[in-house]
Design goal:
The chain is of the alpha/beta class and 448 residues long. The chain has seven helices and 22 strands. An eight-stranded mixed β-sheet has the order 11-12-14-13-15-16-19-20, with helices on both faces. It has a six-stranded mixed β-sheet with strand order 3-10-9-5-6-8. A four-stranded antiparallel β-sheet has the order 1-2-4-7, with no helix packed on it. A hairpin with a 5-residue loop joins β21 and β22. The two termini are 16 Å apart.
């Protein structure tokens, strides 16, 4: 909670509703000013004149030193109060009654370079967001003006007591997050997409929700020279989770996004050793030539590059490379062999891949095989490819380095408000799905 010094307004400046404030202006995060990233907070401004126009503004400087902001326009009620949870925003980066609009509608400040993406690398420290209130309905130049009051909120991926351990075992690279307490816990193998590298923040959040989650680092295409070696890498990673002393060996799931979701489907359908209890696949597909290496999959995509389209900003659209869905089983994973509950999460505005069409084909294949009852599908209109944990800003188009080392800006798709709604709704349903399939009793969740 932050309390400003005595603040004066000049009645002949700004709108005629402004008047002198004779008591300190108060801006308070009344709930969860220090919280996990998927928890709500509440922002309230007090001691304003009734009918006073103000702007609520959020500002975050990311680890790459870029600034991200969001703002909403409000008018105080008859008590001189503005509540972001309860009151309407009449303009800004979001409108309407949006409790978390100051987070999910964040975007790079004007003048930033194209294609930025906000991703937390150091999960041991919080994402800091400064929330300020300004006089009037402001649309630009926030950092050049003095706010009437400000408060800092901390958004954490890793709750107190979660243990973070680097994994370098049997050739596997990654980071394991263990929930607080003695365990044992359900386990999770967490795999991200084709951008590569070690991405920890979703596993840190899963660790905060009671799952021993291994964020798996991908190898570069061609690093492992055969499909057998690559497949063994993922099987070994799964078993590292399964046989950890604080993990329930019969309750281990797999969680993937994009190509990580493809590999999740591949393991669930094709592995003789990996028997996941359940799988969650975000923006994935089942198109993977039988016996291919990841490098060979990239080579197939390169052959389809004439199908890449450009939008009006010269951003690349890849979705047509996945169409039409092949009928030949040699070019896709036999999902009829999946024997565990599987959840597919997709957006209809996915411009990176034809994920909805792929999920339709998967459903037909599973129906024919008699295992459709294992499939849960979540489809979201106007959501894009990068469906992240809730209150994460939309990244409609970002820079991407292809395996050919060419740098482009990819159009991932999504519209700000519906994409945010999809992230919030899908995360709740994902956690419920994991709890149903990996816990026999209600999950013990860490809190800030």
């Amino acid at each position: 909670m932050s309390l400003s010094e005595h603040t004066q307004f000049s009645p002949d400046r700004g709108t005629d509703r402004l008047q002198q404030i004779t008591t300190p202006l108060q801006l308070a995060e009344l709930q969860n000013c220090r919280a996990l990233v998927d928890e709500n907070f509440k922002v309230v401004v007090k001691n304003l004149p009734p009918g006073c126009p103000v702007t609520l503004h959020s500002l975050h400087q990311c680890e790459d030193k870029h600034y991200w902001e969001a703002y909403g326009h409000y008018t105080s009620n008859h008590r001189g109060t503005v509540s972001v949870t309860d009151d309407l925003s009449f303009g800004g980066t979001y409108t309407g009654k949006e409790a978390m609009g100051l987070l999910w509608s964040m975007r790079p400040v004007p003048g930033s370079r194209e294609g930025l993406r906000l991703r937390r690398r150091n999960v041991c420290s919080p994402l800091l967001v400064n929330i300020s209130v300004y006089r009037g309905h402001v649309v630009e130049g926030f950092r050049e003006q003095a706010p009437l009051a400000s408060s800092l909120t901390e958004r954490w991926y890793m709750a107190p007591g979660v243990q973070r351990t680097q994994i370098r075992e049997k050739g596997v690279r990654g980071t394991l997050f263990l929930p607080p307490g003695p365990g044992p816990f359900p386990g999770m193998l967490d795999m991200w997409g084709g951008g590569g590298g070690l991405v920890e923040y979703r596993s840190a959040l899963l660790g905060s929700h009671g799952y021993a989650s291994l964020a798996l680092e991908y190898f570069a295409p061609g690093e492992l020279k055969s499909a057998d070696l690559e497949f063994n890498y993922f099987e070994t990673a799964f078993n590292i989770v399964k046989y950890h002393p604080q993990v329930m060996p019969d309750r281990v799931g797999i969680f993937g996004l994009s190509i990580g979701a493809v590999l999740t489907i591949l393991l669930a359908a094709e592995s003789s050793f990996v028997k996941p209890s359940c799988c969650v696949c975000i923006s994935g597909n089942h198109l993977y030539p039988r016996g291919a290496t990841i490098k060979e999959v990239h080579q197939v995509l390169n052959m389809k590059s004439p199908k890449i389209r450009l939008d009006e900003n010269n951003y690349e659209i890849w979705r047509d490379m996945g169409l039409p869905i092949p009928d030949d089983l040699a070019h896709k994973i036999d999902v009829g062999r999946i024997h565990c509950p599987i959840m597919l999460v997709n957006g209809h505005d996915d411009q990176s891949w034809a994920t909805v069409e792929s999920s339709d084909d998967m459903a037909q294949m599973m129906r024919a095989a008699g295992n459709l009852h294992l499939l849960t599908r979540l489809h979201y209109p106007d959501a894009g490819h990068l469906i992240e944990p809730p209150y994460t800003p939309l990244f409609r188009a970002t820079k991407f380095v292809k395996d050919t080392k060419e740098k482009v800006i990819l159009l991932w798709g999504g519209q700000t408000k519906p994409h945010s709604d999809a992230q919030e709704d899908s995360w709740k349903k994902i956690l419920a799905f994991l709890e149903q399939n990996l816990y026999s009793s209600p999950t013990l969740k860490a809190k800030m």
